[in-house]
Hints:
By secondary structure, this protein is an all-alpha fold. The protein is about 60% helix and about 0% strand.
Amino acid sequence: MILSRLRSVQPLHSPPPSILKTIMPNSTRSLPMPKTKPGGSSRLPPSALQVLFIAWLIFGSIGSIWSFASPLMSVPDEPAHAIKAAAVARGQLMGTGSGVQGDPLVVQVPGYIAGLNVRSCFAQHSNITADCAKPIDATDRGWTEGKTSAGNYNPVYYGIVGMGSRGLSGEPAIYAMRIISSWLVGFFLAAIFAAAYSLRHFRRPVISAAVALTPAVFFLTGAINPNALEIAATGAVFLSLCAVFEQAASRAPLQRLPLVLLTLSASLLAHTRPLSLLWLALAAIAAVLCYGFGTLMKTLAQRGFQIAMIISAVSCAFALWWVFYAKSFDSLLAGAPIPAEDAAVAMLDKTVFFMVEYVGVLGWIDTLPPPATLYTWVLGFGALLFLAYTARPVRGRWTMALLTVTVIAVPTALQASSSEKLGWIWQGRYALAMVVTLILAAGVTTRFRQFRITPWSKSMIRWGLVLGVLAHTYIFLEGLRRYTIGIQDHVNWTEMFDPRWQPPLTWQGLTVVYIVVLTAGAVCLYRLLTTKSSRPKLPGTHGEHAELS
């Protein structure tokens, strides 16, 4: 009877909205549509591949700027790494040595490369400017004996970077090696963001990635040193593995990009430094703890993941063989011996102090970060860690516990075990790979917390990005001040306009370019975090974990 009356009013296929709302209350709910600009074009969220490419441009540029801002050989152990890179690029994977502890290996390199060890006249003296170093003689290309304490390290990184010294000579060759290293590291820093963005709930992981990349990471990115690649690749392994696990848990097909990033980062991480295999294992275990062993079993059944694991395993096997073949754990440096128990107590006592080095001690550990920059990252780290330690589901807290113990206990154990033979060897940057992974894990652990896109949250993001740009710029200027006029007992910022040393493009030009690149990165990050996601809900995703935007 009701239907016959409705037919008399209007056709059955188009009932009145009031009747339709009564019978099916959800049928008239409007579907979400992408916002359109006045011109009629819609702004869709970027793909993970686009995020990877844009982030690579930004991080490669940041590393290149730091490579020009830091005087040549002004980064810890850079002369040894540069000599090693030039030697490997010329076919010398190792070198010859006396076998005596503390004696570096000897390689045959061009004369201007062999002489890099004498350019550290300003090292550990923050009041001495970079003009004390003599110019590099680009004409000195004859074969000369060069000594390197990195002679027994894995040659893969050095072979890539050392190609910059082929066909060039003098300072251009050194800068070329630095820039190659910057863009290599920049790719894996970008991979961290691309993998974080691949997660269903991506905003907190992306924020944690931005906080994790401290000025110390950028400073090392601009140098010839495998430490930066180790940091970037470790973070990329962890987040790429998280992205793969999430797709496997949701029964969705595994996307190719996270698998490729996982394979590349794991394969190269194994070849960076002797400790890198340990960091690789810990990053993988942390990702498994985040998603559970059941998810691991589901992922192992996927053919794409099996291929990635086979390639990574072969690479790790070669890296492990090299460690034992070249005796990479035998340090080629030696200091005054320290009793093991004294070293352990000293390391535990310095646990919090190492935060200064995690943020950014420049030069040869001789230039402290400005307090404002340090407090910015203390605030950021503290907020993320507090949220992670109280996060639900509780499973994520096991990941945080593992990585926290790693950051505290592993450096203590390594220093104590070697102190009686080698003396004090530990620097905060050696654990930076795990510190970055700890902060990234905080973002993954808290990804299910509500993150609504509101005017208030947008304002918080804007001001947070402004604070980050200012903090990065401040420490960048502090590094330039240290080398242009020196850190003196009085406030001498105005003296920078009459510098004793100038980097390429001048310190003023580099500062302007650095601010522009940082601002561009901040704008991209803001758009990424505030654009409402239109990605479809993955199969198997629980409603209570639906993304709020």
